[in-house]
Amino acid sequence: MKMMRAQVLTEPCKFELKEVPVPQINDDEALVKITYCGICGSDWGSYTGKYADEVECIPLTTGHEFCGVVEEVGKDAKDIKVGDRVAADICIPCGTCYHCRIGEPLLCADFTQIGIHIDGGFAEYVKVPWKNLYKVPDEVSDEKAAFIEPLTATLNASKKMECQIARSVVVIGCGLGIIHAKLAKLRGAAPVIIVGDNAERLAMAKEMGAADITIDITTGIDVVEEVMKITNGVGADYALEAVGNSKPYEQAFKMIRRGGKGEAFGICADDDYASLPPVEFVLQEKKVSGSTAGIGYDWGDAITLLKYDMVDPTPMISMIVPLEELEDALKEIRTNQKLIKVLVAPGLKERKILYK
User: Fold this and answer.
1) pLDDT tens across 42-85, in order?
2) Is it the case that residue 35 has pLDDT exceeding 70?
3) Cβ-defined contacts of 333-339 (< 8 Å, 24+)
4) How many degrees, rounded to 5, is the angle at CA 45 between CA 44 and CA 47?
5) 154-290 shares the fold of 3-147+313-353
6) How far apart are CA 301 and CA 299, in angstroms?
7) CATH of span 3-147+313-353
8) Residue % of the chain over a pLDDT of 70
């Protein structure tokens, strides 16, 4: 039996690098050799046991932001061949529950995701339903391809937020929030404001053309008051929370105008609750919508944006590490302010530092 290296989460806060069997594919699957797998903020949640439903899946090889090369295909696979560069839609809805049958597969009653509920990309190989694979065009580098999954998630949020041209948008969070802001700019929003706690990331957001205005909360500024000042006392048309904490959710709701809309993206802990005044839903007609991930149709859109350089996430890639350093990198992201996106490369021998 062919073996591979994989980082297995054996209990909360413990990864073990193991030799495990290479996944055996069925007729409807393909085997992908991992080139890169990005570390997501939700990987920290899985690692620490923050998300209760994911803890139930342990032992598990996590990692869902992956790209790679097709190594083997099942006999029923179509238009996919060995050697193709691919990324994968990680979502596997059941297809038969109520939500799936009314066109809401992300709300599937038996929803699973590769690298979150079933074994994923922090390994040398991963198996994927062939229908979930998307070819990566030559114009998209492997580094950009590792950003396809997070870009699909921000795209889904952008679509749900339904931002209109010339309307103001506040994004709270300066990690993946930079991409949220960039999509708002592509929609013609103005001004686009990013709120964060990292001066270098906020500067990068401006350099990437993702923000008109940045607000650094480490200065002690009252964020809601500052947004009201920028919007001439009206409030923002839209506010998107990309941190995953109750306090910024409460701030987002306070800073939107009457009739404005809050977009929920950041994932809070199961026991973290925000306090929102119901009267404002009624008398001020404020609205809130949520988005959980990208799926299917978002993947082609994300690849198109990358292919034509509408979004270029490469400045956000701070470091690339070997598979052996996954756990160290997860912890380092929490303490090193210079790290934004870290990629794991199973074929790499020593880490590459890309930030200055």
Assistant:
1) 898 888 887 666 767 889 999 999 999 999 999 999 999 999 99
2) yes
3) 333/39, 333/44, 334/44, 337/198, 337/200, 338/200
4) 60
5) no
6) 5
7) 3.90.180.10
8) 99
Q: CA 292 to CA 194: how far, in whole Å?
A: 21
Angle at alpha carbon of residue 17, lines to 14 and 20, rounded to 5°:
120
Q: What pairs with residue 85 in β-bridges?
A: 69
Bridging pattern class, strands 29-38 and 169-172? unpaired
Q: How many CB atoms lie within 10 A of CB 302?
A: 25
9-18: average pLDDT: 94
CA angle, 211 then 215 then 216, to 5°: 125
Topology given in CATH for the domain delimited by 154-290 = Rossmann fold (3.40.50)
User: Tokens 């979004």 belong to which residue?
Assistant: 311
Residue 318: per-residue pLDDT: 96
- Token pair recorded at residue 35: 């080139």
Question: Alpha-carbon distance 224 to 91, whole Å?
Answer: 36
Distance CA 241, CA 266 (A): 6
**pLDDT at res. 191:** 98
- CB 190 within 8 Å of CB 164: no
CA dihedral 208, 214, 216, 219 (to 10 degrees): 140
For 107, the token pair is 């709300």
pLDDT at 51: 67
Give the domain ranges of the chain.
3-147+313-353, 154-290
> Side chain identity at 351, as an amino acid letter?
R
pLDDT in tens, 91-142: 999 999 999 999 999 999 999 999 999 999 999 999 999 999 999 999 999 9
CA atoms of 164 and 166, how far apart (whole Å) = 6
Helices and strands: H and E segment counts in the chain: 12, 18
